[in-house]
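Hi R.,

Here's the chain you asked about this morning:
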Amino acid sequence: MRIAKIVVKNLFGLFSYPIDLNLVERITIIHGPNGCGKTTILRMLDSVFKTRMQDLARTPFDEFQITFDNAQELHVLRQLKQGSSAASKSKRQRRTEWELEFRNIKAGASPEQWRWVGQPVDQAGIPLQLIASHIPFLTRIEELAWQDERTDELLSLDDVIAKYGEHLPILPRLPGQEVPKWLKEIQSTVEVHFIQTQRLLRLGLAQQSSPERRRSHRPMVLEYSEELIKRIQTTLAQSVQQSRVLDQTFPIRVLAKRPPTTVTSEQIRVKYQEQQDKQKRLIAAGLIGPQSESVLPSGNLEEVEKQLLWMYLEDTGQKLAVFDEFLGKIEVLTDMINSRFVHKSLTIDSQRGFLFKGKKDGLVIPLEALSSGEQHELVLTYELLFCVTPGSLILIDEPELSLHVGWQHRFLDDLKRISDLARLDFLVATHSPQIIHKRWDLAVALVKDDARDGNA
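And here is the predicted structure, written out as tokens:
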């Protein structure tokens, strides 16, 4: 199931937008001036599918509608709790006075409903020391106030729970707060992956709670380089296991199986050359080491030679097939990065991960020495290729960050290439006309329309 349309009503008390997603091109761009709600819409969509109710409830809107490609609809209504008055509450309290009503609408079936009721987070029973140990970049400055060391933003406890509650122990639920089965099923049909503006530093859980650890934010290029090494090792281990099984049974299969009678010597040579070419691609991608190349006998092959070679080629094909998906992604990654970086070249090393060298002097360039724009390009490309599930909906906020205008012009072409490889849908929020470039047919303008407000 794919998302076909999004409608938000009375966002911030000002805006109502219908957003049709392009299901053919699989890329939709929302654009508009600062403050029109681009990032908020991405965050709301992510919150619905990640069950971040606190974050959703604190966002000012009246209704959020999601229509799927099978015409099924999910409506989320935000309302004041019964007996609450927003005007009479403090800022901290007001954020907990809202409730959400979810409605599942399907043709030919009665609507299903579920109501989520917010609760004051300072009564949720979370030991406050867990915030320091689980969210390393937050510093507690008052009894119920924290500062984000990365942005200097001041956060209340409610803010912390809304933004980072997924990293904390599960909040105790009020009676009836368990997510119903029908909503879980909807959430499971669409994998949503949100790539936010802060993507160059690791935002994961703290490994230790010392002050030194809390103040060290590791570049994602290092994290992903190490992760790539592990992926290569896992793939190589799968290849070794496949080879072991095939090699152990080779003699028996040679005696028991005959090649197709229509196989010719030329077909065997063509298949052999194709596999040699594939091995060269694997070597160039850094997935295997240099291989010795054998030469087939010239002239027509004897029947026994055909039998042995055909079985050998079938086995080799299965051994190499283990790398197929991984090889395609590595080649796209290196091709895209090397077409962007002017003075550096990227190769993949099974022991070192990302390996950059200067094109002029051939010297190794540390990953931390890459510019912010280069790191953004590498991190985003790697994440899209290796860290998302095929068929997912990818939300990207401000992809233009730190990118040269020329790179921005080529951004949508890159997305299309990745989308074709991994069957991904993209919803992109941007300020930049350079990102949209010549593809205004993919763009949806978020413009306030007084005649439409409240009636999207």
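One quick note: The CA atoms of residues 7 and 31 lie 15 Å apart.

Cheers,
M.
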